[in-house]
Input
Amino acid sequence: MPCFRCGARQTDPVRGASPWKRGVRAERQVLICPGCQAAHGGTAELDRCASCGSAALGCRLGEIECRDCGHTRAAVRDEACPDDRVPSGAAPADSGLSEEVAAALTRFFRRDPVPEREPGP
Output
C-alpha cells in the first residue's frame, strides 16, 4: 500500500518499529511515509475516534476500530469521495505491483523458475 499523500511504497522493513504511520482517512486504511509525516504534520489529516479523539484507527472487515480506546463502528464509505484519487504525481497503487510481488516471493523462497514438463505417455 503506498503513502496516501505522495504515492511512495514501503520497502522491506529493517528490524524494529516502522517509521511509517497507518491510520484511517475517508473510511479507508492508509499509510503515511516518514517524509510526509514531517512535511505535513504527521496524522493531522486522518480521521479521529468519535469516542476519544485519537487518530490511532484501524480498518478491517468493514469496521473502524480505535487502537487506543477500543471503540468500534461500522465503516460507511461514500462512493463519490474524492479521496479515492491517486495523489498528483503519484503512480497508481497497482502499477507494476504484481511484478514486484512476484520478484519478492521468488527472492524470499529462492525459487528458480519451474521448468515446463513434457507430457507423459
Remarks:
- Strands lie at 21-25, 28-32, 57-60, 63-66, 72-74.
- Helices lie at 34-40, 97-109.
